[in-house]
Amino acid sequence: MPSYQAPIRDMRFVMDEMLDYPAHYARLPSGDDASPDVVSAILEEGARFARDVLLPINQSGDEEGCLLEGGEVKAPNGFKEAYQQYVEGGWPSLAADPAHGGQGLPPSLAMLLSEMICATNLAWGMYPGLSHGAADALRHHGTDEQKATYLTKLVEGVWTGTMCLTEPHCGTDLGLIKTRAVPADGDAYAITGTKIFISAGEHNLAENIVHLVLAKLPGAPEGSKGISLFVVPKFMPDAQGNVGERNGVTCGSLEHKMGIHGNATCVMNFDGATGYLVGPPNKGLACMFTMMNAARLGVGIQGLGLIEASFQNSLSYARDRLQMRGLSGKQAPEKPADPIIVHPDVRRMLLTQKAFAEGGRMLVLYTAQMLDVVEHCEPGEERDHAETLLGLLTPIVKAFLTEVGFESTNEGVQIYGGHGFIKEWGMEQLVRDARITRLYEGTTGIQALDLLGRKVLMSQGESLKVFTKEIHKFCKAEDDNPALKEFVGPLAKLNAEWGELTMGVGMKAMEDREEVGAASVDYLMYSGYVTLAYLFARAAKQASISLEGDEKAFYAAKLNTARFYYQRLLPRTKAHAQMIQAGASSLMAISSEDFGLGFEI
């Protein structure tokens, strides 16, 4: 079975030394509650829960999967008991509004816990995962009655939430949905339709499940402008707010999947189910975006957690596994062969995992600061700034971290060699679980269109300028710092090129809109690599300051990881830049009919 130790020392480096979280929390209206003692307790107890409760049931949950009998789903053995411990520990309410029973702590602390959960049992973590987004959507868009009925239960974790968007005939193009909502008694609606790929759509962990469902009202406009959002509980709440009669929503089947076997991915049938409108009619997609954005950040954290898990186990294996001698001679002469960690290519793979784990953590915690400000600060310049950066970084967090997460888990299998292909080691499960992260909550291509098309080009590049100005100021301030010369020079050039590439795509798109789609994925990956380069430069600055202290080895390793990133991973931007500039012509030149020339379909 794979092992895991929460990387608390690295978390504290990013929080306390690099991003100055103590000062960040002090600026938040509720920041006093996030005292050093509270933060330490959350990290230590979260690490214990993930390691001792979730990790032991991860492989067994993957092997057992979920069982559907008579419309009821049973999660793998141990999952329900783990969820009860999670609720009893108060974890669901960590960052929720105190008005609804929450602890009111900054969202960044919940994101740290989420990394630990994703690293130890991704499938289990998906049961409570969407509940936070469901609660946010109801908090922002629900009526007072809906908040009173559902929010406290969701915050406590007694009930869980889902997001019901996809249908058998449509995925991302939600304008094509067929689920209908017909007015019924009072303010109720009868919801009829089928949704697929619904994570945690049916299970036995909580006493009720609150579905947020996209549907169309009679006479609604065509396309996405005619979508409304409804809250549809599995069991109707009674007058006291407790579980009442069963609603007309059932699990028709469980999906047979490549990974995340421990999570019930359901086909959900709504047969005249009673639901209630959330937000204005025909504005459901805008309301659902509150939940979708939270989910996108959550999926990015899934990528990060899997990178960390793969790295830790790959490192342990590489230190123990003996294979050949080092190219420069015996490195462990007392042994019959050297540990494979002495071999350069194994080190390349390990350092790739290490760099993406540490860089991904910096990206998540940097983004989390923006989320803290947006959630806790009053409207004003600081919140507007944070909201712009959060919008820009969200698709990068989601897509970039899941892309490199899949790469890193694959490298883990490669480090194990043939043993990586064998189930008992647990490395192939990480690959299978990681694969879905590139798909759900919007594929990499969808995130890329959101970044380049909506966030950057639709703002005339202003959202990007907010970030590139920050990078520019950092480079100018450290231009004369000899300790950072190897980082600041390349970063400044890439930062300038980022703007030039954006302008180039924008100019081409004025003539041909296909240019946006042609460039978008490479643009997102380029953006991710440059963003991590900025964060690694900041980490290198802090490490160079602390290099002569008591933890010299820790800071020296941090600097070496930054150097590896700049020398071996950051050059990938050159290929992405060239592909961005290549344009759409070669992609669109072949007709749909001519794609299959040479074989019969």
Q: Can you give a write-up of this model?
A:
The protein is α+β, with helices and mostly antiparallel strands. The protein has a domain at 296-585: Butyryl-CoA Dehydrogenase, subunit A, domain 3 (Up-down Bundle), CATH 1.20.140.10. It has 19 helices and eleven strands. The protein has helices at residues 8-18, 21-27, 36-54, 58-64, 79-88, 107-120, 122-141, 144-156, 284-320, 344-376, 381-416, 427-437, 444-457, 462-477, 485-511, 514-546, 552-569, 572-582, 585-588, and strands at residues 67-69, 72-74, 159-164, 180-183, 188-199, 208-215, 228-233, 235-237, 243-246, 249-254, 265-278. Helix 3 (36-54) packs parallel to helix 6 and helix 7 runs antiparallel to helix 8. The longest helix has 37 residues, at 284-320. The radius of gyration is 24 Å and the shape is globular. The model has no long low-confidence stretch (mean pLDDT 96).
